[in-house]
Amino acid sequence: MKTTVVTGMLGAGKTTFIQNYLKNTEEKTLILVNDFGKTGIDGELISQINPETIELPSGCVCCTLRYDLITTLKRALHEISPEHLLIEPSGIASVSGIADALNQAGLTEFTVITIIDSVEFLDLYQSGMYGEFFKDQIKNADLLLINKIDLSETPKIMKTREVIKGLNPSSIIIPTVRAKLSMDLPSASRAKRSFSNNSHLHLKTLAINIPPDTGKDRIEKLFREFITGKFGNIVRAKALIKEQSGSYLIDIASGKCFTRPLLTDTKRNRMVVIFEDTDVEKLKSEVLKWLR
Ligand SMILES: Nc1nc2c(ncn2[C@@H]2O[C@H](COP(=O)(O)OP(=O)(O)OP(=O)(O)O)[C@@H](O)[C@H]2O)c(=O)[nH]1
Ligand SMILES: [Mg+2]
Predict the structure, then answer these.
(1) What is the average per-residue pLDDT within 195-208?
(2) Which of 63, 140, 156, 200 could pair with 95 as two cysteines, CB 3.0-4.6 Å apart?
(3) Residue 90: half-sphere exposure toward Cβ, Cα within 13 Å
(4) What residues does 204 pair with on adjacent strands?
């Protein structure tokens, strides 16, 4: 069985990569996804394409959910016998923590794909805010995708390449749009792994059920307010909305709001918000007031 861990900062394009990858493979693939909050949005998005999807929502597989990851993996591998196991940890998980958990589950051979958001990477990296965390994701990668080049600028993309090449000279580096790969995944591990650094990021999460009669326009408007900083430092937000015209994913990534139609209707209108600084209860009451 091939095992691939798809890592990368919040909103870099991990789920998009998996969705595109699944469309072009015949392999029996088991996906294990660990999303933020209790809402499990990525699990629903991926299971619309691949029914063999297991969600570990709420918590982080590199630390609090490590035991759950190990037991779930052992059971699922036994029951499903996939040809390929693909894991999407949440954007705050450290590769080191995941690697430890995989080792404990008896999986010692795996490939790490790290997706870099070319719009935001340099600013975040140079600010030093997530320094060690980024380095851990980059140094342990076998394949690095410099993603969202359609939204970025050439000098920025070149500089990003230079920085990540410096951190991990042995990795394959590919610029991508929507994390689309036109090559096979590397089968053998190339990275000289350094699993010493278990630097998980600590951000806050808020999950909210959205009333069924809320249209997507209303959520897009709220998310644009989020981007202005009026509600505090919101790092990432995503919502699933079903309205008369169909169902949609609305999200904030790279400081922008995106809306995309879903393949099938969502079962429940909901959102998850990932943020720093602001108090959870305060943000919750402000969002609920907005939705009323
Ligand atoms: N324009 C553009 N949008 C992209 C690209 N890749 C991803 N996106 C969009 O960026 C947003 C975030 O992508 P996801 O695939 O959900 O990112 P993620 O890494 O899975 O996010 P988390 O799991 O929340 O950390 C979505 O709205 C995607 O449609 C790209 O190359 N170009
Ligand atoms: Mg995702």
Answers:
(1) 74
(2) 140
(3) 32
(4) 275
**Domains in the chain, please, with CATH?**
2-175 (3.40.50.300), 204-291 (3.30.1220.10)
Which whole-number Å values give the CA distances from 32 to 82, 141, 145, in the listed order? 12, 19, 20
- Would you say 144 and 134 are in contact if contact means Cβ atoms under 8 Å apart? no
- Residue from 15, 144, 223, 241 whose mutation best tests the ligand 1 pocket (most atoms within 8 A of CB): 15
State the Cα–Cα distance between residues 146 and 156, nearest whole angstrom: 11
Q: Strands 111-117, 53-55: parallel, antiparallel or unpaired by DSSP?
A: unpaired
Query: What is the whole-number distance in angstroms between the Cα of residue 251 and the centre of ligand 1?
Result: 9
Cα separations (Å) of 89 from 27, 131, 245, 284? 21, 19, 32, 25
Q: Which of 51-55, 57-61, 154-158 has the highest mean pLDDT?
A: 154-158
Query: How does pLDDT run across 60-100, given as a tens digit for each residue?
Result: 766 777 788 888 888 888 999 999 999 999 887 778 888 88
Q: Which residue puts its alpha carbon closest to atom 6 of ligand 1?
A: 178
Q: How much is the pLDDT for 196?
A: 56
Which of 6, 9, 15, 16 has most ligand 1 atoms within 8 Å of CB, for mutation?
A: 16
Q: Is 157 in the pocket of ligand 1 (CB under 6 A)?
A: no
The number of the ligand 1 atom at minimal distance from the alpha carbon of 177 is 31
